[in-house]
Amino acid sequence: MHLSDTASAIVSIGFHGLAFAMVLYLISVGLSVTMGMMGFVNLAHGVFAMLGGYVLTSLMKDQGMPFPWALVGATLAVAAASIPVERLLYRRFYGGDELDQVLLTIGLDFMSVAAATYIWGPLQQPLQPPAWLSGPIDLGLQHFPAYRSFLILCGAVLVTALWLSVERTRFGARVRAAVDNLRMAQSVGIDTSRLFMATFALGSGLAGLGGALGADLLAVNPGYALQNLVYFLIVVAVGGLGSIRGPFFAALLLGITDTASKYLAPEFGAFFIYALTLAVLLWRPNGLFGRA
Amino acid sequence: MAFRRVTIECLCAHFALIAAVLPAAAQTIVKVGLISSYSGFVAQSADEAQKAVDLYLKEHVRDLPSDVRLELIRRDDTSNPEVGKRLAQELITRDRVQLLTGIVLSPVAAAIAPLTAEAGVPLLISIAAAGAAIPRMSPYVARVTVTLWQLGYPIGKWAAEQGGKKGYTAVSDFIPGHDSEAAFTKGFTDGGGQIVGAVRFPPNNPDFAPFVQRIRDAKPDVAFLWVPSGPQGTAMIKALNDLGVRQAGIRIISTQDLLPEEELPNMGTAPVGIITSGTYSTAAERPANTAFLTAWKREYGEKVIPDFLSVDAWDGMAAIFDLLKASSGKFTADEAMAFFKSWKNPDSPRGPIMIDPETRDIVQNIYIRRLERQNGKLADIEIATIPMVKDPWKEFNPPKL
Fold it and tell me: Which of A226, B39, B239, B399 could form a disulfide with B212 if both were Cys (CB 3.0 to 4.6 A apart)?
């Protein structure tokens, strides 16, 4: 089957946009939930994604670990690392002044730049996927890069699992209750402190996984957390705080717009994604799925 | 490290003079400011060059006259032109350096060049840097590396002569990318080809896939790429391979920056057959190159691989050492420039080189190379030599009188 030029351009944009959206969603969903639930402005969320990328590339390069195991390792390592951060640092600032939170977390961002340079050096860490994920594969319509096809597949599975667990499990019900009304949730006996910790670890683990899977798209380098902060914040702001579904559509919108502008009008740089963000927020100041 | 020892000896010499007890032999101390991008997105290039500088000092420090001491003052511009400019200012006014050298990024060179004119301190660009026009910004700038017009124009012509009709350019969006795009375009159209599309991507760690997809969908005969030398080359090769660009019959052409030698082991076999224009390959069979590689391996072992940036920095040090030897360490800015303008080395690891007295830019052989497997490793094999190429941009754009 052969596509016309226009059709193949649309397919190309849709494909790469979807791959980028999956990475953005995995990284940002945790940020959306923790912001909505605890009202905590965590600008250092990208550090967890960066850490995922570094753990993955180090496990593969230095330990010779196969790619799937290194992915699992990166996710678990980041989730585990996030628990002491939440217990020792963030918890003291819940319900506090937003400016304090912003200063604390932006400070963590700067520290992450210095720490990553010290440990891993100033250069980007390349992701070397296994042979079965390199090169193009033929999916009928067109040839697609194997790695990004795998990325989209992984993302789709994770998104489904996440939605089901939030909608169908007891843990999910508690999370939704805490986001909706924190005091009421506490008064019916939900241990919100432990719930926060678990949610935070889950969100950070997902960010680590997103950073690791997306090492190909968002290059793993010491400046990661600050370079990509705007992307994560756009996803959360456009999607709506505290939502699981909102950030997905926001990520999709952002991923496809970003890819389309790179493909069709690269000379405009990031103009279109900011224009789109502006337009959405003027139309719905609380985001696509946010509540007034 | 040779560099440290030199500094310590310098300090000792200082104390001896201050004490003024001994009738000390008059030491001429020459201070040279070395500005490089030890951090930031071209840090790997800076490292490749620094290793060559250290090695040159170690191998040749004894060649200096016994009463001349070279003090190299290293500064990191963090890949940022404003920082580079401030550091140059400090080196000139506070450290009172007599020469500036190094410079990885052309925007840094462009930021510093006007200062050299104001302060009358020569700058010998010795690591990389494009910006064909930079030596015109100041009479105190000379360059011992290459211009991207020297690399891009001949390969553009060559690609058209090999039968490429439709060309596409994809370059990093800053000075060297713009230079190489313009140079390739001119060479390719002069050779009878036609450019059907052009794209520029951000210089700092971009995701290449959407841009490469655009090239693939445009189906040109030839795609000319330019990325900053280092890990971005590997990322670009990966994107080309993932999207099956070469399998689709699109020929990839670039400059040596796409395939720096130290990155080749990370690239697998995907880039075999890619044609680049360059000034230096470790696979080149020249006695000076063999000697250079032997010294390098003795110092750094087999795993650390030099590239064209190392040889650029090596030649830059050679020019400075020649100046110190010829002048016994005593020179004015104008004398240094007069010396650089007539400097030549018939026997650099990259072949014969000389600085053109009129443009203060280098004249050298440009090699067309094909990446091949040789003894189980990837190597840039020189398949054609274009002898003693002058910067074409300056010939197409004579100075306005």
Answer: B239
